[in-house]
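ligand=magnesium ion
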Amino acid sequence: MYFQAFQRGIGYLKTLMESSAQMYEDNLFLSHFYDFLKIKPQILEPEIPSQVPEKILTGIEFKNVSFFYQNNVKNVLNCVNFSIMPGEIVALVGENGSGKSTIVKLLTRLYDPRGGGIFLDGRNIKNFKADEYRKKISVVFQDHIRYQLSAKENIYLGDINGKDNIGKIKQAAEQTDIDKKLASFPLGYDTLLGQWFKGGEELSIGQWQMVAISRAFSGC
Ligand SMILES: Nc1ncnc2c1ncn2[C@@H]1O[C@H](COP(=O)(O)OP(=O)(O)OP(=O)(O)O)[C@@H](O)[C@H]1O
Ligand SMILES: [Mg+2]
């Protein structure tokens, strides 16, 4: 009887120790989660927002824009000045790491400049509500996301309001010529893209890029 009681006691103790270890491990994950929740948005909303222009009249202007990333002391952009007229098509050409994508990230207000300002029709883009301003912009970065979702979802995520408008989704796909490929799948636009899930169809890198560009078109 004593022996059995001892053995059972050891068993309980072992379970208790294991549970404590599990709780400690879970707590480590939770502390990351709480640290994440504590992060404050760095893009501040203006107290009195300006109206985002429906039609651009005078263009976009970068005035003495300087920028460095938080973990970087060196400036990525140093007093950059240029302007883009409405309707003008511009290509930024430069060495790898020279700051081209950073310029686009500043233009889309994913970051704010550390010095100088970016102006749209003469108004600093900081004076617009970030959401309203971003609705007017489509961007496809070189490291765009390959959503392991259906072809339809991959496109309408560019404008969630058009989620039930299959005509608009197809039109966005036609603009990059990816529509034929998507329509050729047995489930058409409902086909899962990528190979994470069963039944998913893998696309080539170029085809994924076309899907990403269609996503940018879906908001237009
Ligand atoms: N999120 C980040 N955090 C810290 N540094 C970054 C970050 N993104 C870019 N950088 C740094 O900023 C510099 C400019 O990067 P950026 O991506 O703007 O270059 P790029 O001109 O677009 O290059 P590429 O031609 O390779 O696309 C690089 O030196 C890079 O190391
Ligand atoms: Mg780049």
